[in-house]
Amino acid sequence: MADPRFYLRAVFLVAGLALVAVPLLTDGFLAIARPIAFGTDNCRVVHVVDGDTADIWCSGSGVERARLVGFDAPELFSPKCVSELIAAQKAKWALRGYLFGATGLRLQRGRLDRYDRRLVTLWLGAASLSQKMIQGGYGRAYGGGVRFGWCG
User: Fold this and answer.
1) Dihedral of the alpha carbons of 93, 135, 131, 27, in degrees to the nearest 10
2) DSSP states of 52-119
3) For a FRET experiment, which of 35, 76, 80, 96 has its CA 20 to 30 Å from that of 54?
4) Which of 130, 121, 152, 22 has the alpha carbon at shortest distance from 73?
């Protein structure tokens, strides 16, 4: 009979690969299947970074990091507590879900923020993405300035 640690290692390996492969496949499908009309540019979301940040590609300007405006989502890369990390993962997957299910995606590109991200307003049909994220409990209304924490 084989050592049980072998099976445990195999489970961890498969789970680790799934944690990497599923988001990459999801973003790849999103990049191909969901164009966004913006003037004469053909823009696409090519990668969801976290609940309020994505990479977009537009034929006129190439790939840009975009900060989706109107809401703030929990921090995925610098969470202050475990509950914020969990909420950030939920927000990231919710954003992917809204983008997958949307018809008539539309975006408006604004200026660059202090982190050189393009400020982008995104609509899913007639509704704004920020309203959907806030109503779903994945973000809070935010127009700049002081941000409040997600812990406790």
Assistant:
1) 10
2) TEEEEEETTTEEEEEEE-EEE---SSS-SSHHHHHHHHHHHHHHHHHHHH-SSEEEEEEEE-TTSPEE
3) 80
4) 130
Say whether domain 4-142 belongs to CATH 2.40.50.90. yes
The C-alpha torsion from 107 through 112 and 115 to 119, rounded to 10°, is -20
Tell me the two tokens of residue 36: 């966004």
What are 130-143's pLDDT values in tens digits?
999 999 999 999 98
In whole numbers, what is the pLDDT of the chain averaged over residues?
Answer: 85
As given in the structure block, the two tokens for residue 70 are 């109107």
Alpha carbon 104 to its chain's center: 18
Q: 67 pLDDT exceeds 80?
A: yes
Domains in the chain: boundaries: 4-142
Distance CA 25, CA 93 (A): 13
Query: How many C-alpha atoms does 149 have within 13 Å on its Cβ side?
Result: 8
